[in-house]
Amino acid sequence: MANIIVLGAGLVGGVMAKDLALTHDVTCVDISQENLAKLNGIKTICADISNTTKLKSLIADFDLVIGAVPGFMGYKMMRDVIESKKNIVDISFYPEDPFGLDELAKKNKVVAIMDCGVAPGMGNIIFGYHDQNMEITDYECLVGGLPEKREWPYEYQAVFSPIDVIEEYIRPARYVQNSSVITKEALSDTELVNFEEIGTLESWNSDGLRTLIKTMSHVPNMIEKTLRYPGCVEYLKVLRESGFFSYDEIDVKGNKIRPIDMTAKLLFPKWKMQEGDKDFTVMRIIIEGLENEKKVQYQYNLLDRFQDNTISMARTTGYTCTAVANLVINKKYNQIGISPPEFLGNHFKYIKEYLEKRGVIYNMIKKS
Question: Is the domain of 338 the same as that of 297?
């Protein structure tokens, strides 16, 4: 039994704390007492971990740190943890280059695994697994988390912080085509894609490849696209082009405000999941290339729904992270430095089985 601290008790952090508490001694930290109050039977601390001194003091006696903070806090939090010489498994979707912390992690002999969710996360792990066994030429990942009930005006509900969601709509999207990195604006190249049991969804370019662009640079074609209900892209583009997602301060009656802060404040009540709301996560990964000198295609399909009183996006994201946390605790994964999830390809089968025990099923179809 390990002594683990979870930083963040939101919809995903709380689920990870509960899962890890089944076999470990867990403490969860959050600035919101309301979030912490939902964690019955788990030790909690109400604190502001954006304060470096406070954070380092809190994690001093723990064996492993789990990061589940909003993306804008993620990079600094990870740096503080690494400086404290503590191993960390993190799901924060921060914009900074994680390899900027690699030298620091190696100097402090820290195992630091980032982006350890569903996508990025499990998709990368699947990619890393097949990269060891075949010559991959094409990788495509389509993924989205959506409410089961489509309600006007947004037909969307957020399980992450509103600003993190908005980041997907404004961060330039990179993909790889014919071994060249191509950058387009987010929400570009919309396509309608049909999924069994779900119907038609709308896909668009988002910056989900992240570290894969660097670590899998030998693969000539790679793309990740986000899925939403059809029609959402148009109004998101209108909001973006009108400046509602801007970080640049504007003057409103003598007060300086960032439009994105106002937008997040207005949208969160519209996006927040209410009691009784349910969601689903859908992902389709297609990997093509040569295996034993023969053309082959692997397709992975995930359709996970709200169950056990737990939202799907928290299950699919959180249980990937807790599976990897157990690998680190048990010293099954001990690579020093920054590790993106594709480095864990060797452990794909363990992680897949861990998820299956919790009802998260990735179905694979092989075509040759």
Answer: no
Residues 108 and 132 in one domain: no
Provide the b/e sequence for 225-254 (b: ≥16 CB within 10 Å).
Answer: bbbbbeebbeebbebbeeebbeeeeeeeee
- What is the per-residue pLDDT across 45-89, written as a single tens digit (0 to 9) for each? 999 999 999 999 999 999 999 999 998 899 999 999 999 999 999
Do 201 and 274 lie in a common domain? Answer: yes
What CATH number is associated with residue 225? 3.30.360.10
**Cα-based distances in Å from 345 to 106, 130, 288:** 21, 8, 17
Beta strand pairing call for 173-177 and 180-184 = antiparallel
DSSP 307: B
Structure tokens at 29: 């930290």
Give the single-character DSSP code of 238.
H
Residue 103's CB: how many other CB atoms inside 10 A? 11
Beta strands in 91-130, from DSSP E residues, in sequence order: 111-113
pTM: 0.94
In the chain, how many domains are there? 2
The residue count of the chain comes to 368
Q: Beta 279-291 vs 64-67: how paired, if at all?
A: unpaired
Residue 103 belongs to what H/E stretch?
A: helix 102-107
Closest Cα partner for 306 from 269, 270, 281? 281
Same domain, 203 and 295: yes
Helix (H, G, I), strand (E, B) or coil at 131: helix
pLDDT digits (tens, 9 = 90+) for 119-153: 999 999 999 999 999 999 999 999 999 999 888 88
Edge to edge, what strands does the sheet with 111-113 contain? Answer: 43-46, 25-30, 3-7, 64-67, 88-90, 111-113, 337-339
Q: Are 317 and 122 in contact (CB under 8 A)?
A: no
- Give dist(CA 66, CA 58) in Å, integer: 13
